[in-house]
ZC12D ribonuclease (Mionectes macconnelli), 309 residues
Amino acid sequence: VNQSKLDLFCKLGYGKQDICKVLENLGPEALEDDVLRELIRVGSKPQALENQAQPSPLKLVARGSCSTAPGLKPPGQDKSDPSDSLRPIVIDGSNVAMSHGNKLVFSCWGIQLAVDWFRQRGHTYIKVFVPLWRKEPPRQDSPIADQHILEELEKQSILVYTPSRKVKGKRVVCYDDRYIVKVAYEKDGIIVSNDHYRDLQNENPEWKWFIEQRLLMYSFVSNRFMPPDDPLGRHGPTLDNFLSKKPVLPEKKLQPCPYGKKCTYGNKCKFYHPERLRQAQLSVADELRAKTKVLLTLGKEEDRWNCSP
C-alpha cells in the first residue's frame, strides 16, 4: 500500500524523502487526503514548482567584457525603493491651515503636521500650495500663526506659492485650487483637502473623475493629522492601498469547520473542509439518494439474473 502511495505522490512531483517521512508519521493506513494535507503542512513543494522558484543560473561573461547579463542589476540596486510604490501627495495648504486653526487662524503648524505624517509613511514627492500673499505680515482680518514654518518648507522645496500681485492697491490672486488639481492630475497623485472643488469638477470631466477618486479628506484630533482608514467609503480600498500605486489584495483565509469530519451539512457548509479536497461535497440527503440508487440498480440486476434461464 505504501508503495502505491509513494508512486502516486512521486508522480505529483513530491520528493521521496518527504513522502517517506510523512508515511512513517501517519502510518500505513493513512488516507491519501491525509498524506497530501500533511505534505502541504510540512511545506513540501512539487519539484516543478521548486524549479520555477529557483533563480535561473547566471550566464558566463567573457573576460574583459564590461557588459552585464540581461535582467541582472549591479550590487546595491537590487532592492526596490518602497517610495516608488507610493503616490505623490499634493496638499491644499490653505484648507489644511484654516482647518487646524478652526477656520479663524491660518495655522501653519497644521501644514507641518500633515507633511510630517506623509514623510513618516515614506512619501518623497510632497507639495504644498499656498497663495503668495500669505508671505505678507498678518493683518487683523487674516491672522497667521507660526508663519516661519512656511519659510522652512519653502527652503525644503515642499511649499509652492501660487502667484498674486497688486494692481492699483487691489490684490489680484490666481486660483490656487486649479494649481492643486492640475499638478495632482498630471502626477497621478493624491489631493489632500476637505474641499470638493465642485466648480473644477463641472469644468473638466476628467478632473471630475480624478477628484472623486483621489481626494483624501482628513481631521485634526488634538494636534494630530488623521485621514480616514476608508477614504472612498466602507466598500472602497483601505488607506494603504489608496496611497499606493500597486494595491495589495488581502489574502482570503478559509476558516476550518468546527465540526470537522462530523459535519453533516455537506456542500452547503460555508466552512473549509480539508478532508474533502478530492471528494464531492454532497449533503447527507444527496449521499443517501446516491446510495439508494446504487442499491436499486444492484437489486434489478440480481432479479434479471434470477429470471434468466
Observations:
- Residues 61-78 have pLDDT under 50 and may be disordered.
- The chain has three domains: 3-46, 82-243, 261-300.
- Residues 82-243 form a domain with the Rossmann fold fold (CATH 3.40.50.11980).
